[in-house]
Amino acid sequence: MSHKPLNEPSFRESVDLMFNRAVKLLDLSPGLEEKIRVCNATYTVRFGVRLRGKIHTFTGYRAVHSEHMEPVKGGIRFATSVNQDEVEALAALMTYKCALVETPFGGSKGGLCVDPREWDAHEMEQITRRFAYELIKRDLINPSQNVPAPDMGTSEREMAWIADQYNRMHTTDINAKACVTGKPLNAGGIAGRTEATGRGVQFALREFFRHSEDVARTGLEGKLDGKRVIVQGLGNVGYHAAKFLSEEDGCKVVAVIERDGAVMRPQGLDVEAVRQHIMETGGVKGCPNADYTELGNSVLEHECDILIPAALEGVINLSNAHSVRAPLIVEAANGPVTAGADDILRQKGTVIIPDMYANAGGVTVSYFEWVKNLSHIRFGRMQRRQEEARHQLIVDELERLDRYLGDAWSMSPGFKEKYLKGADELELVRSGLDDTMRIAYQSMREPWHTREDVSDLRTAAYMVSIDRVAQSYRAKGL
Ligand code: NAD
């Protein structure tokens, strides 16, 4: 069972330990090391909202880890467990993540101590708008300085409220929509943002499986097809990752772990049905065609090929790392493996695709959304029909050839339709995301393969990121 032991470092200390491990392998001055590691500022706010006849006080945070590039970027989390240590750890991860996938942002993160399930939609709107007001007032939400996005407990609904709140307070700002990403499509969002983080997890795994030497380090063989996957947390990230991997790559989702326990099925669960059951009942208990256990965390230790923690941090820690049997862990959540557990798993030879890479799909598509908002035009609007017209020219020629050659040759079935269709925004977003995930993997893999003192992908990822942040500081003359 994964009860976090008392001698386990905090989340922020865990991130620092991982940072220190990597930075030792780089040749930076100690002053610059320290500058990159520390969190620049954390704002704490307590505000009251009158709800159900009385005033309730809420505590929120916005941490800015690094402003080597602006705006800074990072989600806003709604959960009762939110605290300063957590937002600072998450803000630091954002800095490294943005550097790794080359999105031009510094790192930030926000959080509000609230259980969104305790309040109805109207009440949540009042709470969210009030929190946003406090942050906007201090430019901690601002298109050119600090741009939040969804995280645990928040979704496009909250982002739409935040965008509207900013708009009310900056009525003449032509770029107001770019103050937050992850908005609904009809409020300035971008196609494919909701699925982006889960889609990124899929692209990360596909890229990993393209490199047979990397797969060999896990002891696994072959392609993604048929691999047994366990997912913890069937929320935005976990659901999309599980859905795409099972529907498009032939993976079998053999267990889903949620707050109230876990459901299992060795032949593979119907991800859509499990999700539907969670939406209807609030948990996985009673899900049809599956075995249930209330000891959810024990399922992290079950045999499988790929373990995808996609809920919260610290779930694989000193108490259970020894028992985790998966040879490959993909950190869809932020910080699911503590620094202590990371040491144990590394020694066991478990391969971990680290959070700062694995879940970077969200910030990547957020970047596309921000660019779309600033350019005030949907991706593909200018080129799509022109591209189709040029393709039509080739298809006309091929049709002429087809007529000329008679039975001797014809176009493959479906070719014409596929070739003629110009890319819409969703296809462009997916293509940009795929490209980003492939390139980032290759940059992270390089030190893993070329340096003897780098034994894991996390250290390699930190090295690439820290080096890029350092270059950016050096370019500024620091
Ligand atoms: P979400 O709120 O949509 O989903 C979280 C899921 O985890 C829910 O289904 C919840 O019931 C479940 N859960 C919560 N506590 C649990 C527990 N103790 N055991 C098992 N399940 C539990 O959140 P999300 O947006 O999917 O985020 C999940 C993780 O991914 C977080 O670590 C977040 O920081 C990270 N992340 C999210 C995004 C994004 O775009 N949303 C981007 C990058 C990283």
TrEMBL record:
Keywords: NAD, Nucleotide-binding, Oxidoreductase
Active site residues of this protein: 109 (proton donor)
Glutamate/phenylalanine/leucine/valine/L-tryptophan dehydrogenase C-terminal domain residues: 190-477
InterPro entries tied to this protein: Aminoacid_DH-like_N_sf (IPR046346), Glu/Leu/Phe/Val/Trp_DH (IPR006095), Glu/Leu/Phe/Val/Trp_DH_C (IPR006096), Glu/Leu/Phe/Val/Trp_DH_dimer (IPR006097), Glu_DH (IPR014362), NAD(P)-bd_dom_sf (IPR036291), NAD_bind_Glu_DH (IPR033922)
Residues annotated to bind substrate: 73, 97, 366
Pfam family, one: ELFV_dehydrog_N
Residues involved in NAD(+) binding: 197, 236
Family the entry assigns: Belongs to the Glu/Leu/Phe/Val dehydrogenases family.
Protein name as catalogued: Glutamate dehydrogenase
Source organism per UniProt: Roseivivax marinus
Lineage: Bacteria, Pseudomonadati, Pseudomonadota, Alphaproteobacteria, Rhodobacterales
